[in-house]
Amino acid sequence: xxxxxxxxxxxxxxxxxxxxxxxxxxxxxxxxxxxxxxxxxxxxxxxxxxxxxxxxxxxxxxxxxxxxxxxxxxxxxxxxxxxxxxxxxxxxxxxxxxxxxxxxxxxxxxxxxxxxxxxxxxxxxxxxxxxxxxxxxxxxxxxxxxxxxxxxxxxxxxxxxxxxxxxxxxxxxxxxxxxxxxxxxxxxxxxxxxxxxxxxxxxxxxxxxxxxxxxxxxxxxxxxxxxxxxxxxxxxxxxxxxxxxxxxxxxxxxxxxxxxxxxxxx
Length: 266
What we know:
The chain is α+β, with helices and mostly antiparallel strands. Helix content is 50%, strand content 19%. It has a 6-stranded antiparallel beta sheet, sandwiched between helices.
């Protein structure tokens, strides 16, 4: 009987610890490039946690340098501890290590912003980006997330995933409409992805943001496994139809270069 009580007590402690960790993770993931600083009140309301609970978590995470509090505004932001861990991951990620050189050359050849992204849960995550040197450009930042169905890179990811995973993404995301050009019908998206598989390329025609287009191709590792996508992003109004073939060729070339750097020799 004593042993059973001890096990039950230990299980309860583990469950409590797990809930605390879950809340801390929700808190860290509340921040983004678009919302780099948030107040305690906003965090409490957004996460559905009591303000006192959020306050205690923030204090603990600040001690670990995972969060930082502005001494004047009292607003909260991600701390240097997160940056340190992120840099360690970047240094260990072979795709990231080879991306910047290839992206730099792609931008030189096209004069458009370019990025490398990977599949993360049900969205596309930008892990490396190089901005266009031109004044009229599309700005993207590392850490930006985009829905799969409304981006060129996301369509590449959908095209290479299993039918089961595709259905799961569709069910979880719901294919929300972001612009009038967004594909929101599953059958239409499936037909679109058939063309992506045939050509190995995907285009975004203002489907995520009005006036923003992109072209993407897949990146593969030494085993031929799909690991990410490389994309050229541009304002639609400055890219005439005759230049699209050039952009497509340069994106394909860059995808081959990056894949070769990862050991793929197809």
